[in-house]
Amino acid sequence: MLYETRRVGQRLGGRYELLGLIGSGSTSDVYLADDHEDGQLVIVKHLKGEVAGHEEIRKRFLAEARTTMSITHPNVVRVLGVEQSEDERPYLVLEALVGESLGEYLQREESVPPDLALELARQIASGLAAGHRAGVVHRDVKPGNLFLLGPAGDPQGLKLIDFGYAKQIDRGPMSTANVVIGTAQYMAPEQVLCDPIDARTDIYALGVVMFRMLTGHLPFDADPGADLLSHQLFSPAPPPSWLEEDLDPRVEAIVLRAMRKHPDNRYSSMDALLSDLDRVLEPHPGSESESIPRVPLAKFPDVYKPKNPMGREVARVLASRFGAEPPLPPSTHLPPIDEQE
């Protein structure tokens, strides 16, 4: 749907004629535009004037362009260029997509048929795996950032969009600089506590998206706030079969492994998760037991232990409110049992 705006008819860079407003966020306006050089429709994402002078927002906006352009994959939206308008506000030019977001689909349909949900999960995992190979963690995998291609209600494909929160992996663990980045309902414990993250953070979020597609519900359906964050930290993910009794146990195993609290207990990589999805979607000859993805025993107790001082304090406060035991940091050692009072 296009919305009227006084900017209709305006040309950016003498090339991109704005046809209508698609949507508006806190930092950017998104328009459908006609590229008069290539004769095709494109999407223009223009940084808003009121935030253009904010250095961090501007850096993040330009980083989104560089990050997305570093990933070439059919399940990732293509950035065609990054330009600057006459008022020096940057804008991204992206390929035009026809369809709706997975979020819009779920608002209307509540859940996704199992076969379609698995195929969409495979496409999400494929796009994320390509990003991880390029050194990029998305950090905000959620239905609103997954675009379904084709007629509403009959998707023919999927693309990952909005890499505004994505993080480039450099040489080691990534710091979030004590700023919570992401969407609470889909956050892994390490995101909640501002700890270093890696590809397994996206694996957790994909597990939540799969749970939502298959059951029509979130695993922790609380309002964003302390209770929801506490569930993300302390509560094991409920089996989706509690809500969808006929769910294939192989699929449930994939979802539950992806959503483990301790990153080392999740899939080691998105490719590993993708391999299990392929085994369900395209089974090979052999016994039924061999075709079922095995959920290995957890390497560690499935409790996330914060790594930074702020995270330890947040976990302690949330635990006290939630009635849970605060997780001990990795460097904390209990005295031998015979020395305890």
First-last Cα distance: 67 Å
Shape: globular
Strand order within the widest sheet?
1-2-3-4-6-5
CATH superfamily of the largest domain: Transferase(Phosphotransferase) domain 1
The tally of structural domains comes to 2
Low-confidence stretches: 171-176, 331-341
Describe this structure in words.
The structure is a single chain. The chain is α+β, with helices and mostly antiparallel strands and 341 residues long. It folds into two domains: 11-95, 2-Layer Sandwich (Phosphorylase Kinase, domain 1); 99-322, Transferase(Phosphotransferase) domain 1 (Transferase(Phosphotransferase), domain 1, Orthogonal Bundle), CATH 1.10.510.10. It has ten helices and eleven strands. The strands form three sheets. The protein has a six-stranded antiparallel beta sheet with strand order 1-2-3-4-6-5, with helices on one face. It has a three-stranded antiparallel beta sheet with strand order 7-9-10. A hairpin with a 3-residue loop joins β2 (16-24) and β3. α3 packs antiparallel against α8 (270-281). The termini are far apart.
Gist of the model:
This protein is an alpha+beta fold and 341 residues long.
Tags for this model:
341 residues, alpha+beta, Phosphorylase Kinase, domain 1, 2 domains, 10 helices, 11 strands, 33% helix
Per-chain topology:
Layout (H helix, E strand, L loop, with lengths): L10 E2 L3 E9 L3 E8 L4 E8 L7 H15 L9 E6 L5 E6 L3 E3 H8 L4 H20 L2 E2 L8 E4 L7 E4 L6 E2 L20 H4 L6 H17 L10 H9 L14 H10 L11 H12 L6 H4 L17 H14 L19
Antiparallel strand pairs: 1-2, 2-3, 3-4, 4-6, 5-6, 7-9, 8-11, 9-10
Helix pairs in contact: 3-5, 3-8, 5-7, 6-10, 7-8
